[in-house]
From TrEMBL, chains A, B:
Family: Belongs to the formate--tetrahydrofolate ligase family.
Pfam family name, one: FTHFS
UniProt pathway: One-carbon metabolism; tetrahydrofolate interconversion
Highest taxon of source: Bacteria
Name this protein carries in UniProt: Formate--tetrahydrofolate ligase
Keywords: ATP-binding, Ligase, Nucleotide-binding, One-carbon metabolism
Ligand binding (ATP): 64-71
Catalysed reactions, semicolon-separated: (6S)-5,6,7,8-tetrahydrofolate + formate + ATP = (6R)-10-formyltetrahydrofolate + ADP + phosphate
Amino acid sequence: MKTDIEIAQEAVVQPISEVAEKAGLKAHEIEPYGYDKAKINLDKSVNRKSDLGKLILVTSINPTPAGEGKSTVTVGLADALSLAGQKTMIALREPSLGPVMGLKGGATGGGYSQVIPMADINLHFTGDFHALTSAHNTLAAALDNSIYQGNPLKIDPRRVLWKRVLDINDRALRHTTIGLGGPTSGVPREDGFDITVASELMAVLTLSTDLQDLKKRIKKIVVAYNYDKEPVTVADLGVAGALTVLLKDAIKPNLVQTLAHTPAIIHGGPFANIAQGTNSVLATKTALKLADYVVTEAGFGADLGGEKFMDIKVPKLGKAPDAVVVVATVRALKHHGGAALADLNQEDLTALKAGLENLGQNIKAMQRYGRPVLVAVNRFTADTDAEIKMIEDFVATLGAQVFLADVWAQGGAGAKYLAQAVVETIDQADADFTPLYQEDAPALEKLQAIVENIYGGAAVELSAKAEKQLKDFAQYGWDKLPIVMAKTQYSLSDDPKKLGAPKDFTVHIREFVPKLGAGFLVALTGSILTMPGLPKHPAALDIDIDENGQITGLF
Amino acid sequence: MKTDIEIAQEAVVQPISEVAEKAGLKAHEIEPYGYDKAKINLDKSVNRKSDLGKLILVTSINPTPAGEGKSTVTVGLADALSLAGQKTMIALREPSLGPVMGLKGGATGGGYSQVIPMADINLHFTGDFHALTSAHNTLAAALDNSIYQGNPLKIDPRRVLWKRVLDINDRALRHTTIGLGGPTSGVPREDGFDITVASELMAVLTLSTDLQDLKKRIKKIVVAYNYDKEPVTVADLGVAGALTVLLKDAIKPNLVQTLAHTPAIIHGGPFANIAQGTNSVLATKTALKLADYVVTEAGFGADLGGEKFMDIKVPKLGKAPDAVVVVATVRALKHHGGAALADLNQEDLTALKAGLENLGQNIKAMQRYGRPVLVAVNRFTADTDAEIKMIEDFVATLGAQVFLADVWAQGGAGAKYLAQAVVETIDQADADFTPLYQEDAPALEKLQAIVENIYGGAAVELSAKAEKQLKDFAQYGWDKLPIVMAKTQYSLSDDPKKLGAPKDFTVHIREFVPKLGAGFLVALTGSILTMPGLPKHPAALDIDIDENGQITGLF
């Protein structure tokens, strides 16, 4: 069986100028990066059409080590819509380089449902993440320099919120001390590094509607507290203009293509736990202005990425999904129902039945917003007819329908019926989009809405610290901001071991992190790792390139 | 008076495809990055012509705060050669982003002798430095991960040579401790960050002749010593392939243009103190294969960058400069002769006479290699006829000639006579290139040759540590490697306060740093800063971008 990179390397790549033309972009509206990638000039293309295309959100059950193939289904569905003659585009997140060197597994789809050039997209792509790393660390250096040069802002070195970032899996940088080496090398303090995608600048960039909005948001970022415990912002440090200059190209959406030459916009990659977990507002909006159908996805499961798409991204985008596709696999559902990873190739209706509760809760969570929900089962050869039948029956009780997708092996042809159903469903849909909470509702009310309606849980509990924070935040008006729940992706609850659909659980909020540039409060539950480590055998050990420039080992 | 960026922004940019065509590159031999930048595909263009063009090396007196304008003269001279109908190209280093945010002052020439797009080149350009940062830190993460995962290579955490890098001026990162936070976050140890241009990978990338040579060199990099004090290399860590993949595009030279549309290759940017300080071997070679005249430069003064060009780069390039231009200004020479910075606009023949000794030693250093040397005086309005005459008379005693260059204000037209003289000089030159030392000479012999013949000093003194190192290195064969002297750029001696041409001085070697990938030994004299800090008022405070995307404050 061919690997993903072998399939990608054998692909006939259409010149990006032709892909752009197909998408309705004129030559001067793109900036080529090589012959297979381009950036889209913002001012010109975003205001092309007066009516927006239809938006299809692909999300999933809670992820398991068995794999669900959400990106693969996203690409396959878009190719199926293209095959059916619909003017279609994809809007996806950019992969992070750190994990590429750590764990095998692509972020560009798989098999015959991939976006290309796969290696470039997974490596440096058009440099967006590197620009973010630069801007983030320029801000960190400006902050420490301000402390060093007489500390005019009276920054408390013990209360610095702005860490440094690298797009590397590097556990040794999680907790550091800096400024050592005597009086000429700064002021010693505790610090640490996050991975670049965890930077608030990533959330900011991907929520911004233009360059000036970006600058305005950057100014508001709170980087530290001073000795009077008052917030210190980027505006106070005076470097918002410089950071915006560093991000002037990163804000432009990137154009690539699928193996079937469907135009794909790949742009931005915020985490789905500590940020909104979806591609940029500008990317999705650009696609909606150009195409009649836009297929996009949200990170992790419907409870995390799906909820944030609806509650954080939709208000900024000014457009809700016209249909939601929840992806599941028979394997993953059986794992949710208690089957061991080693046994997933055997029929197990008992485990499947139990695991279906997870799919059920994620379907209900998405139906809650008033949009039609469809279920795509990403086919594996070991799936039995009895298993598929059980899923279909279960999903029918929720008023939804199941479609089998064999997009890994067949590309768009493997999602023909799913694509037909999506188009028909959108044509027939009539319910209004129903937001989960009022924008200005108190934080606790928002948290309860998420836990009860999305997770199927019972209650929310704030730590003493979190309670005190909400009181402190009230004086700055931060207590009314939208909530971004930083929760394990593996469970609907805040306990990664509780698979399936746990009931009557309480979600514990340990701490809030104010993200004033992004415009939300992150609610931390449990310990969320913002700097991954490398495994015992990192993927980097298997990656190589030969004298002809042929790359091996990259997935 | 217009600023550099204003002049650059007003420029009429020729599409990079036309610039490439003028340079003799076919459309499929370049990869566009936007419409004004491109990468050159290595395999095709490097072997175009059988005979190489003529190479002109631009170097200077020891730099002073008064400014010499070496890059400006390099660009102006190339434009002058183009104006005279010669097929000309430029080969320059890429600027580092860290200093751009720190101190005002471009690295892309100035006035009407600039390379464009100036803002892009000074910011992220085509991402080469970001790729180096990624590759460097991926290696660092792999090293710490190896220590963490049972330390199979028995790496001594107290003897790690491979620090981390960022392309940021950030003094707080010079000395750090990492791996804090308990058993799940690595093994605590002392560490630190250098600026990206100080990475050995930068030296390696810019000395490599192709992708496989790059991989071979990367394997040899010594990253640490084990508990038996034996060297641990990248080959031992097993990530050379992955690092090469991360640098697969960074190794390709970048094509841009001057304001007068002369094709310019800008590629690589190693420090001129701890590395060879000049653009990549591939960039210069590509230019020599395409053009009849190639103007290039070396970092800092002739003593540092010039010497390294001749002794480190020439053997890898397989080609010595056909002529050397030493740049000076009346102002800088007066400062070398003792005039205060505030008084440089006043005629001062006494100070000038004393300062000319610095020019004299730098001319002699370059003449030592058997190549014709010309002097370019970069004109300032305050320069008097008597001052110019004194320089001309002095230079004549060394068998060289002075040419006035007014390239800042006039562009190529301001270097008309310099260009004519360069062409004539090259036509008449007949002496052979004379290397400074034999490749396999002992380290001390090489050091003495540099100090006596290039710096005009008397002797070399090794610290006890340095002496012991040479003995230790002998067992690995490292003691015969070429020497890269890490010395202050401000003085011919190792004391930055000794301006002019000090005599009878001894250069003290504190320590050697083996750079096995680059293939040289760095000899540290005094304290060489490899991570700059930000000043009290960083340039970042003045950089901004308006709603039309117009950048201000970038120089």
